[in-house]
Specification:
CATH superfamily of the largest domain: AF0625-like
Low-confidence stretches: 280-293
Structural class: alpha/beta
Number of domains: 2
Distance between the termini: 44 Å
CATH topology of the largest domain: Aminopeptidase
Radius of gyration: 18 Å
Helix content: 10-25%
Number of helices: 6
CATH class of the largest domain: Alpha Beta
Mean pLDDT: 92
Largest sheet: 8 strands, mixed
């Protein structure tokens, strides 16, 4: 059996993960188990495993994986519910970790989880197609902001709580489940850390759709406060973004980050080639006119 490209982690305590689990109920058992639960092959090099507790507190799950999978540094993908105080009907993708010295929602303070920029950006582009098929939905990145703490690449793919209340919720879950079986990494993209913007980093989301940037960690303005800590936090984000050439600011007018030594390159958003295909639908917008949507 070929090794997995990624493993979908399904938390029994999460309504989106439970719904996805029902959609992915087929497949066949592999020779691998985690805490007694069988890891199943549910697609072409796509495996899945069920977990009993909340995603955000499943720290060190990678250390409970079989040794062969740990050595491969397999990427973990967590479908999950997204709760927003703004009531935003969104589908979201985001890397894991806590840039600041707090860990209110799982993980550990100032610990960033390794990323898989091509696969996570590919997930965003695929999620955009899911959202585009349902009226009133949008797909977006979120900034790095919660656990679990892991030592292998990982990211969350989320469905807004408000979406689950809509008549189309079952169709959204069906399409999401299909996407989780066929996600593909971007090819030929430049890789960077995204810096600036608010929690939903709309400028960086738009940039990934329209130009060949694959992002790893996404550090919002809030994550860089206080400003003297910005260079240290950015360096940690670059170290956990394989292949990162530097950082891309959300806006051209954003002030540069200052370094005492070994500066990390600041890259211009337009340095990457335009992205062809459905993601490029519509005119490219100036980053000076983008706002939190």
């Amino acid at each position: 059996m070929k090794p997995p490209s990624y493993i979908v982690v399904l938390a029994d305590s999460d309504p989106v993960a439970r719904a996805v689990s029902e959609q992915l109920s087929g497949g066949r058992a592999t020779d691998y188990r985690v805490d007694g639960a069988s890891i199943r092959a549910v697609g072409d090099r796509v495996w899945a495993v069920r977990r009993p507790g909340p995603h955000i507190h499943d720290d060190r799950l990678d250390e409970r994986l079989p040794a062969e999978l740990r050595a491969q540094r397999v990427t973990l993908v967590f479908p999950s519910i997204h709760r927003s105080s703004e009531g935003r009907p969104a589908l979201t993708v985001h890397p894991l970790g806590n840039p600041r010295p707090t860990a209110e929602y799982g993980g550990a303070p100032e610990l960033l989880v390794p990323t898989n920029p091509p696969l996570m950006t590919g997930a965003l582009l695929g999620l955009g197609e899911v959202a585009g098929a349902i009226d009133g939905l949008a797909a977006t990145f979120e900034a790095t902001h919660h656990g679990p703490a892991l030592g292998v690449p990982a990211f969350f793919v989320e469905v807004g709580e408000e979406v689950l209340r809509r008549p189309e919720s079952s169709e959204v879950v069906r399409r999401l489940s299909q996407l989780l079986l066929v996600m593909q990494p971007t090819q030929g993209d430049r890789v960077a850390v995204g810096v600036g913007g608010g929690h939903y980093v709309p400028q960086l989301t738009d940039l990934a759709r329209r130009r060949r940037w694959s992002f790893g960690h996404l550090l919002s303005r809030y994550a860089l406060d206080p400003w003297p800590e910005a260079s240290r936090r950015l360096r940690a984000a670059v170290e956990r973004t394989p292949g990162a050439e530097g950082y891309v600011p959300a806006k051209r007018a954003d002030p540069p980050i200052e370094f005492e030594r070994d500066p990390i390159p600041r890259l211009r958003p337009d340095e990457a080639r335009p992205r062809a295909g459905p993601a490029m639908a519509g005119p490219e917008r100036s980053d000076d006119h983008l706002s939190e949507r």
